[in-house]
């Protein structure tokens, strides 16, 4: 597959636009360098490129506005050059021209970015709709688009995404079992990035059921991390959909994976479900044997007890608390399931999905299951103490 990001008709257009964008950015970023003179490096670069790019820009109707801005810039600089006197009128004219130059430079940068975004989306969608012959090219295009979206909200970019129906195409690829997993995973990353970009707009476009099934079907740490992120952003409705689709047992099964990273991400996902899930979702976790699985993980070489570090001792000073937190974080890197029973109980306690009486009932149920799952009284006593002290009464 040929790289769809290349411009066959004019391979130099992207290089010219990149240079124009950089010069425009410099003109805005360093106003204290007195850029509003034709001998300013940024001004000189823009004017040189304006002459060089004239034939290139004229071939693309989307760049006609950019051509006008470059012509306006040239006119403003010429006006500025004619007003180098020392009178008040010259001073005011220079101030107005300097402000106008900065404003036009901003418009130039915005126009170039809009063109690049349009080309990027068109190339990406073209590649995703064709047979997947070159995974590397598509993964690179998806990664580039994810990076662009992750730069922060941009209304023009949002309009381009909505107009092109890119979100629907990305979801279609994510949910296509015939598509290579690398492409599906990266499509999932972009879906998550778009939700971060503007949750109010893109959450409503998520086909929850199919997306959840696809992410769990891939059985990769990457896809499961996206699932965690989607729970965080869409909260209880997404957890409800996980429950209705019967996916909770699949997530619980991942806690038994031989891949440590997979087990860690599965636990993170369960913590998110515990925080946002309603009564039925939490019941499904506990009926699926979650407490026993967590006790076993806490007993493993990757578990341990944070209680010994004074995690739940309210009498420590604040400075001591910060030192303790650093020790705990260091410990958790090598022991990701340390005090995992209490950590889950805390999520239920401070979470958004349960009523107070439900929280109390689940807490009591966890304590009873801990006694059943523990190998001896000492283990049970330690875990119970963590659960009791780790969450508020």
In short:
This protein is mainly α. The protein has helices spanning about 15-30, 40-55, 65-80, 90-130, 135-150, 155-165, 165-175, 180-195, 200, 210-220, 220-235, 235-245, 250-255, 260-275, 280-285, 290-300, 320-335, 340-350, 355-375, 375-390.
What distinguishing features does this structure have?
393 residues, mainly alpha, 4 domains
Can you walk me through this structure?
- The protein is mainly α and 393 residues long.
- Helices cover 73% and strands 0% of the residues.
- The protein folds into 4 domains: 13-116, no CATH class; 131-205, no CATH class; 207-286; 289-393, no CATH class.
- Helix 1 (13-29) packs antiparallel against helix 2 (41-57).
- The longest helix has 42 residues, at 88-129.
- The chain is elongated, with a radius of gyration of 29 Å.
- The protein starts with 12 loop residues before the first helix and ends with a helix.
- The model is unreliable at 1-11, 31-38 and 311-317 (pLDDT under 50).
User: Which consecutive residue ranges, at least 5 long each, have pLDDT under 50?
Assistant: 1-11, 31-38, 311-317
User: How many structural domains?
Assistant: 4
What characteristic shape results from the CA principal axes? elongated
Would you tell me the structural class of the helices and strands? mainly alpha
Protein name: Armadillo-like helical
Organism: Hibiscus trionum (Flower of an hour)
InterPro entries: ARM-like, ARM-type_fold
């Amino acid at each position: 597959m040929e790289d769809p990001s290349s411009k066959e008709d004019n391979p130099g257009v992207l290089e010219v636009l990149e240079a124009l964008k950089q010069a425009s950015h410099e003109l805005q970023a360093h106003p204290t360098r007195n850029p509003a003179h034709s001998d300013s490096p940024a001004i000189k670069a823009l004017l040189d490129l304006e002459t060089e790019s004239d034939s290139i820009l004229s071939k693309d109707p989307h760049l006609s506005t950019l051509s006008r801005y470059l012509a306006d810039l040239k006119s403003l600089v010429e006006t500025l050059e004619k007003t180098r006197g020392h009178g008040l009128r010259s001073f005011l004219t220079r101030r107005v021209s300097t402000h106008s130059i900065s404003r036009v430079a901003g418009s130039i940068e915005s126009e170039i970015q809009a063109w690049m975004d349009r080309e990027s989306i068109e190339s990406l969608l073209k590649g995703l709709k064709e047979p997947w012959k070159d995974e590397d090219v598509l993964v690179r295009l998806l990664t580039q688009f994810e990076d662009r979206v992750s730069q922060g909200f941009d209304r023009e970019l949002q309009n381009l995404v909505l107009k092109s129906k890119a979100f629907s195409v990305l979801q279609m690829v994510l949910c296509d079992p015939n598509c290579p997993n690398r492409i599906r995973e990266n499509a999932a990353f972009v879906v998550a990035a778009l939700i971060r970009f503007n949750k109010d707009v893109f959450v409503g476009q998520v086909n929850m059921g199919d997306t959840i099934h696809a992410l769990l079907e891939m059985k990769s740490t990457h896809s499961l991390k996206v699932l965690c992120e989607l729970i965080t952003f869409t909260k209880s409705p997404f957890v409800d959909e996980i429950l209705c689709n019967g996916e909770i047992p699949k997530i619980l099964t991942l806690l038994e994976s031989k891949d440590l990273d997979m087990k860690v991400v599965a636990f993170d996902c369960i913590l998110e479900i515990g925080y946002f899930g309603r009564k039925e979702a939490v019941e499904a976790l506990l009926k699926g044997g979650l407490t026993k699985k967590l006790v076993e993980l806490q007993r493993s070489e990757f578990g341990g007890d944070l209680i010994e570090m004074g995690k739940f001792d309210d009498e420590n000073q604040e400075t001591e608390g910060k030192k303790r937190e650093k020790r705990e974080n260091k410990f958790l890197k090598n022991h990701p399931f340390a005090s995992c029973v209490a950590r889950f109980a805390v999520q239920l306690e401070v979470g958004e999905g349960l009523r107070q009486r439900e929280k109390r009932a689940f807490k009591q149920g966890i304590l009873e299951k801990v006694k059943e799952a523990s190998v001896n009284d000492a283990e049970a006593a330690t875990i119970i103490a963590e659960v009791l002290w780790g969450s508020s009464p």
